[in-house]
Amino acid sequence: MERKEWPLWEVFIRSRNGLDHKHCGSVHAPDAKLALQVARDVYTRRLEGVSIWVVKASDIVASDPDAKPELFDPAEDKIYRHPTFYQLPDEVNHM
Amino acid sequence: MVADMTQANITTPEHIEYVLRLGDNALILGQRLSEWCGHAPVIEEDLALTNMALDLIGQSRLLLTHAAALEGKGRDEDQMAFLRVEREYRNVTMMEVPNEDFGRTTVRNFLFSAFQVLLWERLGASSDAELAAIAAKSLKEARYHLNHSAEWVIRLGDGTDVSHARTQAALDYLWPYTAELFAANPTDEAVAAAGIGPAWGELEAAWEAMVLPVLGEATLVVPARTPFKTYGKFGRHSEHMGHLLATMQYMQRTYPGATW
Fold this sequence. Notes:
The structure holds 2 protein chains of 2 kinds.
Chain A: E1 8-14, E2 21-28, H1 32-43, E3 51-56, H2 68-72
Antiparallel strand pairs in A: 1-2, 1-3
Chain B: H1 7-10, H2 13-34, H3 43-71, H4 77-82, H5 102-123, H6 129-157, H7 161-182, H8 186-193, H9 204-217, H10 240-254
C-alpha cells in the first residue's frame, strides 16, 4: 500500500474581535476542511480564539534564511526611518 | 437545583428513567472515546476524540446530577456514574460496543451525534427547566461532534479501498443497534405526555433524513432493517458492558469515596 503523509497546514488564530490573526502552530490534515476542524481541536481548547485561518504550509513563500544579511542588515543604521523625530502637538494622544 | 422543586412532588419514575438514559448514553460513549487517548491514528484526532469524550462526560455529569436530584436519595454524580451495577445503567447498547477501529468509532459518533442533535433541539423546550438548560449547552457540542464525524464518514467511506471496506463493515455492524434508539416504550410515552421530552421514536424520520444523505455521499450501502433487537436502555446489556464497567469503576470501587 502506498503511504502518503498528510500535508502540513499553518494555523492562525484571532484571539478577539479587532485583533489580528496570529500564527500559533501547525497541523497535519488531508484537506482544508479537516485542517480547520483539527485546528479547532488542537488550538482552541482553552478559549484561545474566535476565528481560525489555515494555510497550506507549501503555499507560503518564505524568505531565505541565508539571505538575512542582505535583506535585513541594511536597515540597522537607518534609525531616521522610525517616526521618533517629530514634535507631536499635545492634542495628538495615541501615537 | 432541587431547591425550588415543586417539581420534586410531581417527579415520576419515568422522568428519572428518561434523564438516566440521556446521562448514561453520554457517560458510556464518553468512556469509550476516552479509550482512544494516546492511541488515535494521528495526534490531531487523538485530541479531537478526547475533546469529544470530555464533552460527553461533562454532559453526563450534569444529567446524572439532575437524575440524582430528581430521585431525591442523596446520591451524587460519582455514585451515579461509578457505583451502580450493570443492570442499573440505561444507555442504549450501541454506546457500549467496542471501538474496534477508527472507522467504527467514527460511524458510531456520526449515527449517535445526529440523534443527539435532534434530541437536544427538542429538549431545549422541555417542561423540565434544568433539562432544557442542559440541552441548550449540549446542543452546541453535539453539532460539532456531528460535523466532525460526518466529514470523516464521507472521507473514509469515499476514500481508499481499505477505508471504504472498514467503514462499510462498521455501518453493517452498528446499523442494527440503531433500532433501539427509536423503539416505542412506556417511559417515552409518559415523558412525552408530560412535555418533558419527545418519545425517541418521533425523531426517527428526521434522523434518517440527516444521516442517509451523508452515508450516500460516503458511497456506503445502508443495510436493511433486521429483527435484531437490543435492550440496553432497559438495563439488559451486551457482554461488553461488564468489561467496560470494570475498567470505569475500578478506581471508585478500590478507593471508595476518593476525590481529587
